[in-house]
# Entry
Amino acid sequence: MLQAIQRAGMSAIHRKVVDGERLSGDDGLALYACADLNVLGHLANIARERRNADLCYFVRNQHINYTNVCNKDCKFCAFYVRVNDPAGYTLSVEDVRRRVEEQIAEPITEIHMVAGINPRLPYQYYLDIIRAVKSVRPDVMVKAYTMIEIAEIVRVAKKPLEEVWEELKAAGLGSLPGGGAEVLSDRVHAEIFALKQTPDEWLDMARSAHRAGLRSNATMLYGHIETPAERVTHLLRLREVQDETGGFLTYIPLAFHPENTELSHLPPTTGFDDLRQLAIGRLMLDNFDHIKSFWIMVSPQISQLSLWYGADDMDGTIIREEITHAAGARTPQGLTREALVRLIQEAGRIPVERDALYRPVASRSVAAA
Amino acid sequence: MSAHAPRGIADVQDKVLSGQRISSDDALRLFAHHDLPALGALADQVRLRHHPDPIVTYVIGRNLNYTNVCWVKCGFCAFYRAPGHDEGYTLSREEIGDKIQELVDLGGREVLFQGGVNPQLKLDWYLETFRWIKSTWDVHIHGLSPAEILYLAHISALPLRECLTRLREAGLDTVPGAGGEILVDRVRKILAPGKDTADEWLGFMRTCHELGIHTSSTMMYGSVETTAERVEHLGRLRGLQDLTGGFYSFIPWSFQPERTTLPHIPKASAFDYLRTLAVARIYLDNFEHFQASWVTQGAKIAQVSLRFGANDFGSTVIEENVVSAAGTTYRMDIPEMERLIRDAGFTPLVRDTDYRVLGPYRPSESARALLARGLAPPIIAGQRPGRAEAGRTEGGAA
# Structure
């Protein structure tokens, strides 16, 4: 490996990683310019094992995408339809309750709820669907609403953000997913998701959530029009906020799926880019505890490999994913616990079933695997 | 090395880095080693010794599955139809000709001519077909397999050497290493009791090499074999290559359990593929070329395999391109193949079947037109389109 590190010109970065020294933006650019995947994996694995040893987390979770109606017109999205489109759907509070009841036999600990921005939904709806989930399954953690949904909720609530956080928490909101960050760059924002909040607004809202005592994740939607420099800037901006608040739980790079989007002329991400993206995320985000490989987007195969490229979390069993599948994802819409455990163990890692806050699920932890 | 790398393989690493051959015990230890980037880096080091330039080659070739009739009845094969089955087919000359013409229009020369062991087809059929192909087009026939040729020799009551000589005179250029499966009779008896034994397969290859007919070699892992049997397989290949030097390449692929008689076996993972490829690259120090198997692994893993010992992206296959992407069939066209190779940091170059590098792909007018409008769908009598290719993954990359 030393030869490969030298050949790739990565000796100085290697030294920093071994010493636990923070990497600079220039280091980030150098990592993106490195074609040797094994070197990237080796470096990321040093950081990964230092923080998470041989553990690989997964969760038993359910996704509920409560509406596909959206007024943001993001060019990378194949899921949304505009207001008044007959293909639009919005789940009623009762529908949400039924979705949860349908899976009542599954030992789920987390329900992930995100959707489009349907301007006709009243404030009460957002509180009620959380309550509906909690009424059926009081023990699950509701991880709901990306920052743009929160912005919409604040708009219809006509209340200050701080007050909205408290009311959402009182309804049962447990944590926030990290979607919607896309690429934290004003150029990319203007070109492909102009109607959404700006990168500054996204980061401010994350800060506010953390101040309110809510943990959130952070994502990056990569593989469309962004440059390596913009990826690095994105990571640095996340790291900066994390230094301030410590509120981010997990970083999740999301692979762009071009099919059925306005950017369908672009090719899908490659295996090399998927693994590199995780590895560099692990290396740059030295203040994040967890790096998640979202198998829905990169395939279970790449997710398995990613356990040696920085990732310590494979997300979960996921029941009924719809957003990436609208963009032509050919991955399954769910994996069994047995399949996940087998992938993790075969890669030489120790599977740990977690809840939404990375606490081991006691009754079905490693020993049962 | 960092604190992570050794984990019990430092001595094997030293051997590899100093250019020494590793033992079968060493290979077993590598198989048990989980540090994937470390295995990859070691395999990449060996690859670099054989191929110092950052180049990845591929061949413009096509599959031509001339018949699906086969009496051997391998449990892992979803392609064959037993003699008399109403879905059995043998392609006509017109159908064969159309397929070859399409390849030639695309700028390719490699015809992977493979089918089943069809008792209706005698040696003369092959000799006449090959002569006709070679007199009509300037192509390379990478054809048949040990099982097909051993059977031909048998029903023609000819010694293998004589049978091969006649086939070569008629136009057979090289023989794919198909049917290698695992070269351990315990495994072969379970998977393919009707097929040649390990000794017969190796003896066949040896005869080919002695006659100057180059072959490739393969390993179908992930079925019922143990890790030790994988290493035994590699050991037998390495031993024969020491004697003859006649293998051009090694291509591992994973057993595809769907639609076989062994569907309960879980499909081998990407981790297993990369580990197997890497250990093979390290162990088979006398093999020049390692092919990525995008047909069985898909684009993402095939690309990653370029850092785990593979220096070649195999064949364009062509018929896979037009098969619907449903199920486990992967599609690949030339621009996509080149994008993947470049993205991984290599320059894509076209080679011929003898692994001579021809240069960058420069499509002619006819090829451009063909690429723009898409290739013709496969002509397969009595089958829904694509079925033959989907089942016959092992033919694709040899």
Residues 227-244 of chain B form the longest helix (18 residues). Chain B has 17 helices and eleven strands. The interface with chain A takes residues 1-2, 4-5, 17, 34-38, 40-41, 44-45, 266, 269-272, 274, 297-304, 307, 325, 336, 339-340, 343-345 of chain B (CB under 8 Å). The radius of gyration of chain B is 20 Å.
